[in-house]
Write a sequence for this structure.
């Protein structure tokens, strides 16, 4: 197999441009850039011609286009990295498409290697807190004021990790609670949008005598693009449906 990786970028917003910069700095060939509206794209839609010789498509587009993008890319027998968030209600449909076409896909709400290590740390902490009912978990995030979803995919994933590992918690609450007390079985996940912050996530456990907090702060978007490129290297030649958790676990085995 040729050692040089060839990629296509789907979605040429902030992250798409960051992916391009990181890929070129690592000697990865960017065969095509596909976006229906952005200047600098080499194609407006996914076709055999616009994908060209790319082995892997990296998608940072929009939630509403992800499933159609998967259909088209998998139909061309190319593997995918999906960094777009907000489409996870369709995840089983995506899995079926990948299995049907016999290709490979890896997705994550956040491709930062540090964030994915943070997910594992939170999982271990939540499993421990599960044994001590006096501690009540919470999550909050801070992002730049151009982010379109609140809470973001990373905050939702942190809330899900808490629900999976603290048995007394059954649901997440995202909205402002104005007319009632929070239910003891709920985890409050709060969002702040301001300025240019790339992203900060805090998971806390508050007890009667003290508070424990775990925090991840991104200093730039470079960590996200570097992780997505690592995911592209990892999914190259693989078949199946994976998350970034699989990549992290394979690295520490």
């Amino acid at each position: 197999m040729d050692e040089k990786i060839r990629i296509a970028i789907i979605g040429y917003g902030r992250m798409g441009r960051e992916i391009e910069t990181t890929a070129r700095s690592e000697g990865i060939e960017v065969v095509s850039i596909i976006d229906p509206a952005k200047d600098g794209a080499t194609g407006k839609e996914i076709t055999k011609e616009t994908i060209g010789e790319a082995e892997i498509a990296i998608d940072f587009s929009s939630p509403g286009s992800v499933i159609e993008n998967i259909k088209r890319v998998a139909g061309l027998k190319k593997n995918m990295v999906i960094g777009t968030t907000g489409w996870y209600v369709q995840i089983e449909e995506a899995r079926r498409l990948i299995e049907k076409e016999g290709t490979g896909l890896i997705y994550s709400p956040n491709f930062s290697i540090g964030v994915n290590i943070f997910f594992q740390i939170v999982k271990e902490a939540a499993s421990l807190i599960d044994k001590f009912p006096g501690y009540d978990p919470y999550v909050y995030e801070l992002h730049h004021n151009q982010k379109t979803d609140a809470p973001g995919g990373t905050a939702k994933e942190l809330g899900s990790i808490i629900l999976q590992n603290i048995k007394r918690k059954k649901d997440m609450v995202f909205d402002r609670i104005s007319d009632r007390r929070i239910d003891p079985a709920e985890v409050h996940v709060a969002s702040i949008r301001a300025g240019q912050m790339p992203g900060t996530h805090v998971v806390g456990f508050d007890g009667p005598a003290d508070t424990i907090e775990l925090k991840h702060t991104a200093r730039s978007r470079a960590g996200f693009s570097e992780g997505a490129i690592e995911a592209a290297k990892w999914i190259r030649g693989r078949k199946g449906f994976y998350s970034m958790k699989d990549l992290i676990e394979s690295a520490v085995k």
Summary: DSSP finds eight helices and eleven strands in the chain. The mean pLDDT is 94. Residues 204 and 213 are 4 Å apart (CA to CA). The first strand starts at residue 6 and ends at 10.
